[in-house]
Amino acid sequence: MGRDASAQTDAMMNAEMLSYSRSRGLFAGISLEGSTIRPDNDANKRIYGEKISAKDIVIAHETPVPPAAESLISTLNAKTPKHKSS
Predict the structure, then answer these.
(1) How many helices (H) does the chain have, and how many strands (E)?
(2) CA–CA gap between residue 29 and residue 79 (Å, rounded)
(3) Which of 1, 17, 31, 39 could covalently link to 54 via disulfide, CB atoms 3.0 to 4.6 Å apart?
(4) What is the pLDDT along the chain (86 residues), one digit of tens a residue?
(5) How far apart are CA 12 and CA 86, in angstroms?
(6) What are the residues whose beta carbons fall under 8 Å from the beta carbon of 62, sequence distance 6 or more?
(7) What residues are paired with 8 via a beta bridge?
(8) Among candidate residues 38, 3, 6, the one with its CA nearest the CA of residue 21
(9) In whole angstroms, what is the distance from residue 63 CA to residue 75 CA?
């Protein structure tokens, strides 16, 4: 007989996801989870019109938002919670 419980949340720590399971019998297995985030440099070049790194886009904020993304960025800025500076 086995039991398992887990708790998870979303990136903003707002959602509560709880699960519980109970089972009988024999179970043998493995669970591997993971992910990677990789920049798409070719897409960046197509959108920005020049070779630019993801780091420069996301962290440096020195590159202006391309016209194709203005609507998306505007929506994200309006819907994203603002954090207070300390």
Answers:
(1) 3, 2
(2) 41
(3) 39
(4) 566 666 676 666 666 666 767 767 666 667 677 778 888 889 888 888 889 888 888 888 778 888 888 899 889 888 887 766 55
(5) 19
(6) 56
(7) 17
(8) 3
(9) 19
In contact, 63 and 48? CB cutoff 8 Å: yes
Q: What is the DSSP string of 36-71?
A: -----HHHHHHHHSS---HHIIIII--SPPPGGGHH
CB 20 within 8 A of CB 32: no
In this structure, what token pair is assigned to residue 75?
Answer: 């929506």
pTM for the whole structure:
0.43
> Could you tell me if 54 and 39 are in contact, meaning their C-beta atoms sit under 8 angstroms apart?
yes
- In this structure, which amino acid lies at residue 34? G
> Taking the domains of the chain in order of start, what are their residue ranges?
41-80
**8 Å CB contact between 56 and 62:** yes
